[in-house]
Amino acid sequence: MQLSLKALAIISAVLCIAVMGTNGQQKLGECCREVSTKNITVPITGFRLQNRDPPCVKAVIFYTANGAMCSHWRESWVQDKIRELRKLQTAEPLSLPALQQIRGQLSNKPNMQLSLKTTGSLAIICAILCISIMGAYGQQKRGECCREVSTKIITVPITGFRLQKWDPPCFKAVIFYTAEGAVCSHWRQRWVQDKIRELRKLQTA
Q1: Is the C-alpha dihedral spanning 135, 138, 141, 144 positive or negative?
Q2: Which residues share a beta bridge with 59?
Q3: CA-CA distances (angstroms) from residue 33 to 59, 81, 170?
Q4: Rounded CA gap, 137 and 152, in Å?
């Protein structure tokens, strides 16, 4: 039961991230030149702080399943999300079997039935917490698109991905979204295909 309470604490912190609308979101290119004050609508998987360096403005860059977003650093909701993410980053990850066991325990308790929305959130959380950390040397970070790709296994938890088609100068690649940003990986690597299958399975759970 202690394990269940620990998992619920982590899950509750993630579910507290509000989803309220995407109008006015500024997509990230090489840096943030404009910022948005709007709350972000998609799950946030990580962030970094950008200092003012014209033409780049001071901003908080949030990494989401749909890419990176530039947000105004003074907004109270931005500061709240940073605190939530930092708290989650220091939490000890749980294994996939442990989370599946916890989910089963919760589903068997009449007074703790989960809604469909919460169940879907648990699938996303499983993707964030359960994919193993394995090695990041030589990773190529994403700018506007992937112009280089890495064959190295990613070291940080993977929270999402998208496929990038070949469109010179951009290469065909799999862009993995992680807690530290987006990483360009070679689409033919076996570990890349395995991670895609894992993420798709979790998304449909």
Answers
A1: negative
A2: 50
A3: 9, 21, 22
A4: 7
How far apart CA 39 and CA 75 sit, in angstroms, is: 9
Task: Report the candidate in 9, 64, 10, 15 with the shortest Cα–Cα distance to residue 40.
Answer: 64
Residue that has been written with the tokens 């202690």 in this structure: 2
pLDDT in tens, the chain (205 residues): 455 555 655 665 555 443 333 333 444 446 899 999 999 988 887 888 899 888 899 999 998 878 889 999 999 999 998 888 887 766 555 556 655 665 666 555 544 444 555 555 665 665 565 443 333 333 444 446 899 999 999 989 888 888 999 988 898 999 999 888 899 999 999 999 999 998 888 877 6
Quote the CA–CA distance of 70 and 37 in Å, as a whole number.
9
Alpha carbon separation from 75 to 55, 70, 88 (Å, rounded): 21, 12, 20
Report the 10 Å Cβ neighbour count for 107: 11
Q: Give the angle 16-19-22 at the CA atoms, nearest 5°.
A: 150
Cα–Cα distance measured from residue 15 to residue 12, given in angstroms and rounded to the nearest whole number: 5
